[in-house]
Structures are given as C-alpha cells and as structure tokens.
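Dear support,

I submitted the protein below through the web form. The confirmation email said the job was done, but the results page showed an empty box. After a refresh the structure appeared. I'm attaching both so you can tell me whether what I see now is the final result or a partial one.
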Amino acid sequence: MAAWKFSEPYTWLTPELLLAEIRDTIDQLNGRPDSTDRCLAAVDVFLADRTEENRAAARAAYHAIPETQRHYALGDMDRKDGPLQVLVAGPGGHLEGLPDEPVTQEEYDEAVAYFEDRAKWNAERPSRVPSDGPATPMAPAIHLYESYPLKPSDDPGTKALRNEFPAPLLIDGDTYPTVMHAYWALSTADPGARAAVRDADTAFAARGAAAGAPRREGWEQARTAVMTSLLRAKFTQHPPLARVLLDTADATLVYDDSDSEHWGNRGGRGRNWTGRLLELVRSELQAEQAGITLPAPRAQQAGQSTTP
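What the results page shows now:
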C-alpha cells in the first residue's frame, strides 16, 4: 500500500538565519522597526526619489530581511514578495534564483504600479475601517496580588478588586461575605455544603470548606458565566468599589491566583480569567456612565435567576 524511507533530519534554517530572526523578535518586543519595517521604509525613500543609490539601499535592506521572512514582507498572500524583488532589482536586474532571466521594463512597471496602488490603498484604509479606539491599553497594567483581608478598609485601593475582599453579596435571598464565598457555595448542589461554605469565617476557609464538596454537574462549563454574574453583582451592590474598578481606566488587570491557572495569571502560564472578567465588568460600567444601554443577559430576559 505504501512505503517510507527515513533518513537523517535536515533543516535549512542556519544559525545565521536563526540569529537574524531573533534580532527581529527583539526589535519587535522593544517596539523598534525590524528588518521588514526598515526595508519598506527604504522602498518608500526610493519611490519618492528614484535614484540608483536609493534603489541600492532598498535592495540591501531587502537582503537584510531573514530569508525565511521575505515572502511575508508585503503581507500579500497572493503575490508574496514578488513585486518587492522586481522593484529592488530594477529593469535588467536579476531575481534570486533566476540569473538568466533579467527583469523586463514591463515587469518593472507592473511592480511600480503595484506599490503605487498599495500606497493609495493604505492611505484610504482608515476611511474604510471605522476607528473605535486604540488596540492596546493606554494605562499601565495593574497586578492584583493575592490578599486575604478580614474586614473592609476605607481606602483599600486595588485590593477591593480581589474576590476575597469583604463585600457582602445578596444573591437569590442569601448573603455571602465575599465573591469567593458565593462562587464556591454555588459550585455545589449539596445544601449542607453550600451553607457551610457561605458561613465560613474567611474567604480562605470558604475555599477549604468547598474542597470536600462535590461540584455540581456542568460546573466546569458554567463557572465563567457564574463568576461574571457575581462580579457584576459585587460592583452593582457596592458603588464605591465600582469607582475603584473604573479608576483603573483601560489597564490590563493581571490577577494572582496561586491555586488556579484558569482564574489566575500564574506568571504568564494561566488564563487570567478573573482579570479578564474584571475588565469586562469595567467596560459595562463605563458603558453605563456613557449612557449606553446594554441588552440584559439571556437569563434576565427570561425572568430567571442569573446564578445556579
């Protein structure tokens, strides 16, 4: 039916190419132009003043792009870097791999027209895509470190955003001392275990009390929605805490949770869902401030409880 022949592994990624890619990555991480950016800038200079000196500079910048990345320089999945190669080679020049086929004037004119159309498209692009705000936060990230306060504070700062912060929640007729109490109590369908978690002296004790209780069916899939509803309740029922959340502006919220890579950041290994949900609720509060009416969650539309 088939046959296979195995041989020694082979890679054409040389140490020099690998180092060139690493240099580009370092530039990107530091917000500096990488080799592709520098090449396209040199091309712009040539198109504005089409001297052979400027073409030579653009050609050198093109060859400075790691060979593995050149195909992606224009971000064109159809043409790849073909127009770029033709432009920097010029009429009578040669493309890589085609030493016996010099670039014709027609090919060169097509490449120039490609770049002129590309420049026009890039200039018009903002008018075709609505601008609704920056892609990245303007405020520096805020790290919400673990803490287990036993009582509220007049000036808690960002500790007020923690799920263990004392902020009683009224949920379906029951009062829970913290979001953590409510979350772990709602995670089990056992009435006795739920009451024990609700009545635990501290948030830490509430989590401990829930450890031996069975999780309710479907909890893993529903838990993020439950946490969302609890955070909404917390900041709706406690306006001063909502103010603390709003004061974080558009900062990324990095949430510590030493026990969960789902809820916490865990040094970049976790999913940081609590931080992400806090940002979601913050956005809803900002929408309310702006007078934007949001549709109610599906459960509320149906007249149901928003928690299990």
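Response: this is the final, complete result; the empty box was a page-load delay. DSSP finds twelve helices and six strands in the chain.
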